[in-house]
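Design job #97: recover the sequence.
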C-alpha cells in the first residue's frame, strides 16, 4: 500500500476512505467538487488507481475527460508522475496498463464532449470510472459510463467545479448524497497544501461575479444580474490607443434585422484593444445587404487584408467574404458559457480594453444580463450583439491558441 505524505485532511480522506472494508461497502460513488486548484483532481485520480490496483485484477476501467486530450493533460500526465516507482505503467493508444507483481489492470481513456460520446463507452464492462470535469459532460455520457460499472464492487469517481444550482448532478447526486450512497468531499484552495499565498492571490484575481463564487469559493451559485459585473469604464475604456499594433483582427456578430456588430482589434504589449467598431441596426434603419456589410468591413479594416471572425451560422456572409478575397474569414468558436467565462477572466485581468469610440459595446456591457428563472442557464437574448462579437473574438483568437491563424 502506497504511503501517503504531504496531503491535506480532505485529500487524505479521498485517498484512504476505501481502505476500510466497511467504508468501502458504505459508498457506491465519490464526488469531489469545489474551487479550481484545490487539489481535488490529484486526490481523486491517485486514489482511483490505488483503489483499483488494491481491489481488482485483470479488470477494465475508464478515465474520462471533456475530451481525450483534456483527459491526458489534466489526469493522465500528472497521474503517471505520481505513480512512478510504484507501478509499471505502459501506454498504447487511448489505454494504459498498470501492473505490480502479477496483478495488472487496464485503464481506457474517453472524451465526453457531446451527446454522441455515450456510444464510445457503450458495451464495456467496467470495475469503475473516473469522470474529470464531470459537470461539463453530457448527462447521457455520464449515465452510460455509470451503467458500464457492473463488476462486483465497482465505484463511480467524479471531480468537478460547480455550475449553477439547477445542474442535474447537484440536484440528483450532491443534494441526495446519503440516499445515493455518495461520499461527497467539498474542496477550497485552502485544501491544497502545494499552493502558495501568491498563487492563491493570482487565482482570486482571475475571476469575478458568478465565476468567482463558483471557481474560488466553490459555491453552486446562480448566475444573476449583469453578465459582466467586473466591467468598469474607468478600468476598461481608454481615450488614447497605442501607436502601433503587432496583430489585428476583426470579429463579427451578423444580423439583418437584428443589429450587425463588428469590431477591429489590435494587440500591443500583451493586451488587446477594440480600436473601433461598426454597429448597424437593420430594424431601425432598414436592412443592408451582405455586399454593403462587406464594404463596411473593408472600411473598418482600413484596406488591410485582415482575418474576420464570423458567427458560423452566417453562411451567406461568410461566402460573400470568401468570394471577394479581400479579407480572410474564419468561423468563430461560439460556446456561450465557456466564452463568457473566458471574457470575464480577460476583463478581470485587464487584458482587454476598449476605445471610447466603441459606444455600443460599452452600452451593452451595462445592459447584458442573465435570464432569470430559466430551466437552462443562459444570458437574455437582448443587448447582446456587440457582446457576442466580443465573445467570438476572445474565444477564437485569445483562447484559440495555435489553432488560430491570422492569415
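Job complete. Output follows.
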Amino acid at each position: 500500500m502506497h504511503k501517503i505524505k504531504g496531503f491535506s485532511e480532505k485529500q487524505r480522506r479521498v485517498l484512504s476512505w476505501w481502505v476500510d472494508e466497511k467504508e468501502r461497502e458504505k459508498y457506491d460513488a465519490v464526488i469531489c467538487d469545489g474551487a479550481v486548484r484545490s487539489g481535488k483532481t490529484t486526490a481523486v485520480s491517485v486514489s482511483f488507481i490505488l483503489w483499483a490496483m488494491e481491489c481488482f485484477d485483470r479488470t477494465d476501467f475508464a478515465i474520462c475527460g471533456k475530451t481525450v486530450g483534456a483527459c491526458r493533460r489534466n489526469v493522465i500526465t500528472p497521474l503517471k508522475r505520481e505513480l512512478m516507482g510504484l507501478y509499471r505503467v505502459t501506454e498504447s493508444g487511448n489505454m494504459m496498463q498498470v501492473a505490480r507483481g502479477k496483478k495488472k489492470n487496464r485503464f481506457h481513456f474517453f472524451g465526453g464532449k457531446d451527446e454522441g460520446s455515450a456510444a464510445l463507452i457503450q458495451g464495456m464492462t467496467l470495475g469503475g470510472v473516473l469522470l474529470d470535469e464531470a459537470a461539463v459532460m453530457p448527462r447521457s455520457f455520464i449515465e452510460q459510463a455509470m451503467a458500464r460499472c457492473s463488476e462486483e464492487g465497482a465505484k463511480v469517481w467524479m471531480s468537478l467545479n460547480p455550475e449553477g444550482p439547477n445542474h442535474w448532478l447537484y440536484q440528483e447526486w450532491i443534494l441526495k448524497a446519503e440516499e445515493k450512497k455518495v461520499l461527497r468531499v467539498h474542496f477550497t484552495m485552502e485544501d491544497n497544501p502545494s499552493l502558495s499565498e501568491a498563487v492563491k492571490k493570482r487565482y482570486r484575481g482571475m475571476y469575478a461575479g458568478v465565476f468567482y463564487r463558483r471557481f474560488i469559493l466553490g459555491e453552486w451559485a446562480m448566475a444573476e444580474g449583469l453578465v459582466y459585473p467586473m466591467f468598469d469604464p474607468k478600468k476598461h475604456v481608454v481615450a488614447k490607443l497605442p501607436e502601433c499594433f503587432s496583430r489585428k483582427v476583426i470579429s463579427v456578430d451578423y444580423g439583418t434585422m437584428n443589429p450587425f456588430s463588428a469590431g477591429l482589434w489590435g494587440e500591443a504589449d500583451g493586451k488587446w484593444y477594440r480600436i473601433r467598431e461598426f454597429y448597424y441596426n437593420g430594424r431601425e434603419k432598414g436592412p443592408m445587404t451582405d455586399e454593403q456589410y462587406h464594404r463596411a468591413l473593408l472600411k473598418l479594416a482600413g484596406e488591410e487584408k485582415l482575418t474576420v471572425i464570423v458567427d458560423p451560422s452566417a453562411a451567406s456572409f461568410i461566402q460573400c467574404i470568401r468570394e471577394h478575397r479581400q479579407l480572410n474569414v474564419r468561423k468563430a468558436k461560439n460556446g456561450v458559457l465557456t466564452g463568457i467565462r473566458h471574457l470575464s477572466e480577460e476583463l478581470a485581468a485587464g487584458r482587454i480594453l476598449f476605445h471610447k469610440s466603441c459606444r455600443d459595446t460599452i452600452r451593452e456591457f451595462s445592459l447584458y444580463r442573465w435570464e432569470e428563472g430559466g430551466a437552462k442557464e443562459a444570458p437574455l437574448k437582448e443587448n447582446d450583439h456587440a457582446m457576442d462579437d466580443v465573445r467570438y473574438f476572445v474565444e477564437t483568437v485569445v483562447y484559440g491558441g495555435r489553432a488560430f491563424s491570422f492569415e
